[in-house]
Amino acid sequence: MLFVEANGAKIPSLGLGTWELSGRTCARVVEQALRLGYRHIDTAQVYENEREVGDALRASGVRRDDVFVTTKVWTNHFAPHDLERSVKESLARLRLPFVDLVLLHWPNSHVPLAETMGALAHAKQMGLTRHIGVSNFTVALVEEAVALSPEPLVCDQVEYHPYLDQAKVRAVCDQRGLALVAYSPIAKGRIKTDQTLVEIGRAHRKTPAQVCLRWLVQQNVAAIPRTSRVERLSENIEIFDFELSDDEMSRIAGLAHPRGRLTDFGFAPKWD
Ligand code: 1BO
After folding, report:
1. Cβ contact 48:20 at 8 Å
2. Average pLDDT for 67-79
3. Within a domain: residue 265?
């Protein structure tokens, strides 16, 4: 397993995303992932599966210190006291004394960012989390968050895959020492029949999804693919035994197009 190092955090390059996984399926997939060697699990208050993630963590028998656990605070809890209470409630559902990373799930322009960043930093200072960061933040918002945060930020988690150019947000993360964590890294399965990825995969005896995930980790990006299928868990983690050439990396980057974004909401920021 490779790691992305960022402002003191060591984030496993490949993790399991749990968005839209719930109940027994979530617990089963998380436990299987940990047994297969995953050491990075990503959840969120709004996914309503923190309880199952915590249960699976204990059932797996993997040492807590060996797993990097991320959760996120939803936007309606960004006022300082709400944020602290929300993180504590997440920990109670996970049944953990602290997590490795707490993120602001999406920007919320209705609460002053200075207040939210202060509260997030305070959660770290209280020992509720080892690290803090943001998600779905644009270049300008990353700059603002970094400037306002009393504690270093370790990541911006954003949608990123070959169909979505994220060069600008990657650049600001690099400059500010933040890791980029990619959600929907295989474009919700849309890459599976992509002829460029099929062709590159053939040369390495890998699937398009493996090529796609390798392309991300080779950029020093952490990827958190979600799946509910055990065979996909194995497929997604077998990406550390081959390397893409510079030419292959560029060909994959060339797949980006202006309508590549898959996750958007009315409350989303104005994207870069
Ligand atoms: C609404 C959730 C988006 C990805 O975390």
Report:
1. no
2. 98
3. no
Pocket test for ligand 1, best of 21, 43, 45, 46 (most atoms within 8 A of CB): 46
- Give 244's pLDDT tier (boundaries 50, 70, 90): very high
CA 246–ligand 1 middle distance (angstroms)? 32
In a domain, 161, yes or no: yes
Structure confidence at residue 261 (pLDDT): 98
Number of domains in the chain: 1
At 155-178, the pLDDT tens digits run 999 999 999 999 999 999 999 999
Look at residue 268 in the predicted model and tell me its pLDDT. 97
Dist. CA 214–CA 244, nearest whole Å: 8
pLDDT at 1 over 90: no
Query: What residues are labeled active site?
Result: 47
User: What single string gives the DSSP state of each residue in 210-231?
Assistant: HHHHHHHHTTT-EE----S-HH
Task: Calculate the alpha carbon distances from 153 to 17, 61, 143, 204 in Å.
Answer: 20, 30, 11, 36
CATH number at residue 75: 3.20.20.100
50: in domain: yes
Q: How far is the CA of 267 from the centre of ligand 1 (A)?
A: 12
List the end-to-end C-alpha distance of the chain, in Å, as a whole number: 31
CA distance 135 to 103: 6
Domain extent, residue 20, equals 3-189+221-232
Per DSSP, helices labelled H in the chain are: 23-36, 50-60, 80-94, 113-125, 139-148, 167-176, 195-204, 208-217, 230-237, 246-253
Q: What is the pTM of this model?
A: 0.98
Average pLDDT of the chain, as a whole number? 97
Q: Is residue 133 part of a domain?
A: yes
Atom of ligand 1 nearest to the CA of 159: 4
Residues 213-242 have a mean pLDDT of 97
